[in-house]
Design goal:
This protein folds into two domains: 154 residues, Immunoglobulin-like, CATH 2.60.40; 99 residues, Immunoglobulin-like (Sandwich). 0% of the residues lie in helices and 53% in strands. It is built from no helices and 18 strands. Strand 12 and strand 13 form a beta hairpin. The radius of gyration is 23 Å and the shape is globular. The N terminus is likely disordered. Keywords: Signal. This is DUF3324 domain-containing protein.
């Protein structure tokens, strides 16, 4: 299954950006989601704290997430690279933070929706990347010596999704394709299906498979991991069926959009081989 760092549920979470003896913690969600009208403005904040014993430096910048023609996603440097980008609506309070050991700082941002006739979902990423104090771009870097040297820096960055749902007219539309059953490299049996969002609004579907025996008796409900789908995006959702005995079954495949409760479903014939 595909997993994206920016596609985590908007739950309270904590992660760290480690650089040497500095450890910067970001508290809050990795997904900031807003529902607004054209012309509206909303404020958000990134809460940072250095829990290490050395000064820490973090740079903050923006990137787009572009949906390719095949439904896959990719990060793209810069802003405004596609017509669903909201990156140019966002103003950052600062693009760089330096924290003493134990210090905390709130980094504000504002998102202002244009007054245009907009509807549906628009998105971009706020990227947080630690800056090594040995890097030439670091404001904490010591004065370099005249001696030649070779230094390798490992870069780790994290993305905070900023998702704006504009107006109340747009809707998601979920479609299924290519259902299949196969075993993975560990021998676990999975049911997989391509799920596409052909609507204009972001969806976070709950995908499930209700399985019935040939006589109509219910075997059980099996669920996939929940993650988001941008409008225009396609992803594979997988459901563990390793507990099912070999045989032929009837099944109801369903995807419930947990934004509005709409359910999309499809009847399928399911064959489990030994």
């Amino acid at each position: 299954m595909k997993h994206h760092a920016f596609k985590l549920a908007a739950l309270a979470c904590l992660f760290s950006l480690h650089s040497a003896q500095a450890a910067v913690m970001l508290s809050g969600g990795l997904s900031h989601e807003y529902t607004l009208n054209p012309g509206s403005t909303v404020s958000g904040v990134l809460e940072l704290k250095n829990t290490g014993n050395e000064p820490a430096e973090v740079k903050i910048y923006q990137e787009d997430v572009k949906i390719n023609a095949d439904g896959s996603t990719e990060y793209t440097p810069g802003t405004g690279s596609h017509n669903r980008s909201n990156a140019n609506w966002i103003s950052l309070g600062t693009d760089r933070v330096i924290l003493d050991p134990g210090a905390a700082q709130s980094v504000p941002y504002t998102l202002q929706v244009p007054t245009d006739n907009l509807q549906g979902s628009y998105w971009s990423m706020l990227m947080l990347e630690p800056v090594s104090n040995k890097s030439r771009e670091s404001q904490l870097a010591q004065t370099p010596s005249d001696q030649p040297s070779l230094t390798i820096h490992q870069k780790v960055r994290y993305a905070v999704q900023v998702l704006a749902n504009v107006g109340n007219k747009g809707a998601s539309n979920l479609t299924f394709a290519a259902p299949s059953v196969a075993r993975d490299a560990q021998g676990i049996r999975w049911f997989s299906v391509d799920l596409s969002n052909t609507g204009t609004r972001h969806s976070r579907p709950n995908v499930s498979l209700d399985v019935f025996a040939a006589d109509g008796n219910s075997i059980g409900r099996f669920k996939a991991e929940t993650h988001g789908l941008y409008n225009g995006e396609r992803e594979v959702f997988s459901i563990n069926l390793d507990s099912l005995q070999p045989g032929n079954y009837k099944a109801l495949l369903a995807a419930e959009d947990n934004n509005n409760g709409q359910v999309f479903g499809s009847d399928i014939n399911l064959t489990i081989k030994p």
